[in-house]
Amino acid sequence: MAALAAGASGYCSALTLPAVLRQVAGVVEHGGLWVGPQLMRRLMQGLAARAGDTPGPVLDRLSQRERQVAEAVARGATNKEIARVMGITERTVKAHLSAAYEKLGVRDRMQLSLVVHGVEDSTRPSQKIPA
User: Fold this and answer.
1) Which member of 13, 28, 42, 81 has the lowest number of beta carbons within 10 Å of its beta carbon?
2) Which domains, and CATH codes, for the chain?
3) Under 8 Å CB-to-CB from 129, ≥6 apart: which residues?
């Protein structure tokens, strides 16, 4: 957390596999931020704790199910956890997430979490990372 606060663009374990390190390098090269799943969850849970339970009006753009999925992601839940709680498949969770990303103009779970908690404005043009 301290490394990210100091301006680092990525964080991963010293035991990270070479293939994952290449992915990290690619994401960071294109202006992205890389954190592992455990740290991502901690960041989103911390954000949720600080922001409270009042999602912004921007979520009115989403269907009820898309909103439920977006709020669960913003609390740090995995797709598998969301699917189990909502009684849907992981594939359906991914479909709802894709629709939410598109409607809110965000590119990933972290940016979605920031928008849900009102930290980032989704009306600004997003910087898409090229494929």
Assistant:
1) 13
2) 36-131 (1.10.10.10)
3) 27, 30, 31, 32, 107
